[in-house]
Task: structure prediction
Amino acid sequence: MSTTLDVEGGRPEPAAERRTRVRFSSVVASEWIKLLSVRSTVWTLLVTAVVGIGLGAVVTSAQAARYAARGLVAQEAFDPTRASLAGVLFAQLAIGVLGVLVVSAEYSTGTVRATFAAIPHRIEALVAKVLVFATITLVVGEAVSFAAFLIGQSILSGHTPTASLSDPSVLRAVISAGLYLVALGLLAMGLAAIIRHTSASISTFVAALFVLPIIAAVLPSSFSEDVSRFLPQQIGTVMITAAYHGADPFGPWLSFVLLCAYAAAFLVIGGVLLVRRDA
Result:
């Protein structure tokens, strides 16, 4: 390996080390360009918006039509905020797919080798992906959440009680819906970093969202609630609920912290494997 003399310290500096020093801002910029330049990003974000807002409107329309026929207890328990944000619990699938593709697509196409050749410090590449992905999904997630809420309340108006952003816990629930999408997308990224295959990562993500709740539901009642409260789907439901009176297993913010812990754990494991395994 060729070397050059470090003038200040008098020690030889490997030429490869000099060539591979890349500013982190440049790494972030490259990941930003990569993410926004592929069609899958545009389509999945579009699906997130359509599903999050569209299905929210469908749910609120159905709730508005059925509200008068409900019993008094059901009417008192009705949460207009949660109804209008119901589409977010379906939009999570599109965000999860995007989170998987951000990592696994490079393995599928083989471009990950070029990425690691340009950025030998692999953890920097992963951190840059996380920052870029989190920024984009936060903006889109919050936009979808606020749009779904405002449209939903306009649909419910005149048929059911409605909510305002100035009402207690409503603004928190709307913001939490966007944060939920971000955390869940990062969890999907962590899965993809561990598994590396697109189809297997998406299948695992879908199973965590929709299969585990079914399994938990058939467990004995003494275990079912204890298991369900730790599942992402239940966490999301708690986060988008404004009429929270302490009856849920976790409060909304503790639920968010738990989901972030899941995402962080998967990303850390994925980062360790990213360094140890061959590209």
Summary: The CA atoms of residues 221 and 227 lie 10 Å apart.
